[in-house]
Amino acid sequence: QVQLVESGGGLVQAGGSLRLSCVASGRTVSRYTLAWFRQTPGREREIVAATRWTGGSTYHADSVKGRFTASTDNAKSTIYLQMNSLKPEDTADYYCAAALSAHTIMVLRTADYWGQGTRVTVSS
């Protein structure tokens, strides 16, 4: 069992920055692939970024590449999403997610465990 608790959402003006945090807990959490998804009403859930505790490459969606950065702090069991140069179209509910298989996240676009979500609103 993995528990994910997000924080850091809020209201920001276009061009501003926010950092989302997700604290992960569970006995085998280090084995999981981690990801950030986002969703807005009427639109399909979108993967924003994916990474692993053990390092290696990090995936960022084309829509956020160069603006968002996913990272981990293993000592704090925390996953971050640094969001810079925010745009109104980044407005969404953002979810931290974890899956034992990278295939689940990267191909199936789903996860084994989800956080509760945090809302990001970018005003123009």
Summarize the structure.
With 124 residues, the chain is mainly beta. 4% of the residues lie in helices and 49% in strands.
Radius of gyration: 13 Å
Protein structure class: mainly beta
Give the distance, in angstroms, between the N- and C-terminal Cα atoms.
40 Å
Question: What is the oligomer described by this structure?
Answer: single chain
What is the number of E strands? 11
Count the DSSP helices: 1
Strand percentage lies at: over 45%
> Helicity level, as a percent range?
under 10%
Instruction: Please tell me what the overall shape is.
Output: globular
Task: Show unreliable segments.
Answer: none
Averaged pLDDT: 94
Explain this structure to me?
It is a single chain. This protein is mainly beta. It has one helix and eleven strands, in the order βββββββββαββ. The protein has one helix at residues 102-106, and strands at 3-7, 10-13, 18-25, 33-39, 46-52, 59-60, 68-73, 78-83, 92-99, 113-114, 118-123. The strands form two sheets. Strands 2, 4, 5, 6, 9, 10 and 11 form a seven-stranded mixed β-sheet that branches. The chain is globular and about 40 Å long. The chain starts with a strand and ends with a strand. The model has no long low-confidence stretch (mean pLDDT 94).
Using brief descriptors, characterize the structure shown:
single chain, 124 residues, mainly beta, seven-stranded mixed β-sheet, four-stranded antiparallel β-sheet, 1 helix, globular
Q: Topology, pairings included?
A:
Elements: E1 3-7, E2 10-13, E3 18-25, E4 33-39, E5 46-52, E6 59-60, E7 68-73, E8 78-83, E9 92-99, H1 102-106, E10 113-114, E11 118-123
Parallel strand pairs: 2-11
Antiparallel strand pairs: 1-3, 3-8, 4-5, 4-9, 5-6, 7-8, 9-10, 9-11
